[in-house]
Amino acid sequence: MKEFQVATIVGVGLLGGSLGLALKERGIARTVRGVGRRQNSLDVALARGAIDESFLDLKKAVKDADLIVLCTPANSVVAELDEIHPHCRPDLVVTDVASTKSAICQHARKTWPSPLRFIGSHPMAGSEKYGAEHATGNLYNGSVVIVEKKESFHASDAHRTVCDLWKAVGSKVFELPPEQHDEILARTSHVPHIVAACLALLIDPDCHVRPMIGSGFRDTTRVAAGRAELWRDICLTNPEAIARGLIAFQEKMTRILQLVEERDARGLETFFEQAQENRKRVLDK
Predict the structure, then answer these.
(1) What's this model's pTM, rounded to 2 decimal places?
(2) C-alpha–C-alpha distance, residues 178 and 21, integer Å
């Protein structure tokens, strides 16, 4: 793909820092700017080589940029789009990495001119770790990035550029309408994280149970170590789909509670067999 002259990454944590490293290592951007709220965090990104220049002022950082990637929590993206809009080049490309898409993409369609320069993205990459100190240029290798389907808006070259960008850093691109994205991700990511958080809260940390904690607890609660701000914003920006997922989960919990209380051996076995088969079918596809 073409080389960007100036790429501005807003938020240089794990995702933003890793993208900066990937852009520089693969020669996709000549200059990478990083924007943050604290200079010490930006200094880490500079030391890691994830960015070339650091900014605390968003407006200055986007001036003359031909690529902007918003790598901040979902609840911040709409306000950032409004803030940068008057200061952007008319031919630039803007995308994001937020885990919810509908509210962000709907706002961009209403407030940005046609042909649309903002194209929503969601890279299915990362871990429970956060911060530029954990960034790696290989983070996106082999990952799936969901990109706003072009039928959702007046198509422009920006859509092709965003798809090419993610492919250039090693990702596979999958297109979905924003509303469908949020409904699916509520079941495959958002509700599972909430469940993991509930499981983490199930044990009293003062009970000295660490020697008796097995891999089941560690595996199912791993994502609960993620950044609270990120998951707060996911819940705030996808409440309807998450609520529907939680209600469906609550129904499953009510069913297993009934089976346990009734000591229904056959019912319990069937419950776990169905779960096993459903997991296999989902992952095989």
Answers:
(1) 0.87
(2) 28
Q: How far apart are CA 15 and CA 175, in angstroms?
A: 20
**What pLDDT band is residue 150 in, cutting at 50, 70 and 90?**
confident
pLDDT of residue 285: 64
Distance, CA of 104 to CA of 118 (rounded, Å): 10
The CATH superfamily assigned to 4-180 is NAD(P)-binding Rossmann-like Domain (3.40.50.720)
Start-end ranges of CATH 3.40.50.720 in the chain? 4-180
pLDDT in tens, 201-215: 998 887 778 778 888
Read off the DSSP letter of residue 187: I
Closest to 16 in 3D by CA, of 95, 120, 111: 95
Cβ neighbours around 243 below 10 Å, total: 13
In the chain, the N- to C-terminal Cα span, in Å, equals 31
In the chain, ranges of CATH 1.10.3660.10 domains? 182-284
Peptide bond into 115 cis (omega under 30): yes
- Homologous superfamily assigned to 182-284: 6-phosphogluconate dehydrogenase C-terminal like domain (1.10.3660.10)
Kindly state the tokens that stand for 161. Answer: 């550029």
Q: Which helix (H) or strand (E) holds 280?
A: helix 265-284
Token couple for 3: 């080389």
Convert 121-135 to b/e letters by CB count within 10 Å (16 or more is b): bbbbbbeeebebebb
Least confident residue range of 114-118, 163-167, 187-191? 114-118
